[in-house]
């Protein structure tokens, strides 16, 4: 079982992911993904740390590549390799790092956690009570922007596109405990059914339930009043 957790800044996505892992008995890879890269490539952590869910400016990128022989493209290759090894070797919850754009398998569940800005400011200020609301909002927007730029640069995808996720949870109406329950339930269902990741994999299920619950047409009632998808 592989669960990937993509999260907006200050949604407690990392904590929720760790609690899901604890509940299901899975390993957690958050910052540990970068540790995996450094362990397998024998590259010093300080060399790859600037690329962790971030993109350097053009000038910084040129200087960093000149000094350390690494850029976003090379880091992206290392990251893909590390994520695939984790998925091959472990049952795990992988937090961030664009894992959902790399791992596509029957045992993978991809989750996106979002929340209104007001809630995220409250979460942020709970962790950093000395930071005023305006500064908290600024930091949240910066982190969101950095993650979106990272996904565009490394995977050429839009982090906010819901089509990349099996489950999108809006914490506006969900407690953390409910979110954990929903993710765990969806993951167990995915593990039991082992459906392939192709887009048509669940079509037979939809056909079956539509046939079972289709209301019969009454005399004089046109077809479009029947059950519609």
Would you give an account of this structure?
The protein has 229 residues and is an alpha/beta fold. It has one domain: P-loop containing nucleotide triphosphate hydrolases (Rossmann fold, 3-Layer(aba) Sandwich), CATH 3.40.50. The chain is 52% helix and 10% strand. Strands 2-3-1-4-5 form a five-stranded parallel beta sheet, with helices on one face. The longest helix has 23 residues.
Sum this structure up briefly.
This protein has 229 residues and is of the alpha/beta class. It is built from nine helices and five strands, in the order βαβααααββααβαα. The protein has one domain: Rossmann fold.
Helix content: 40-55%
Amino-to-carboxy terminus distance:
30 Å
Question: In the CATH classification, which architecture applies?
Answer: 3-Layer(aba) Sandwich
The CATH superfamily name is P-loop containing nucleotide triphosphate hydrolases
Low-confidence stretches: none
What is the total tally of β strands?
5
**Which CATH C-level class is it?**
Alpha Beta
Can you tell me the number of structural domains?
1
Q: Count the helices. How many?
A: 9
- The order of strands across the largest sheet is 2-3-1-4-5
H/E element order: EHEHHHHEEHHEHH
- The proportion of residues in beta strands is 5-15%
What is the overall pLDDT average? 89
Biggest sheet statistics = 5 strands, parallel
Q: What does the radius of gyration come to?
A: 21 Å
Task: Please name the defining characteristics of this protein.
9 helices, alpha/beta, Rossmann fold, 229 residues
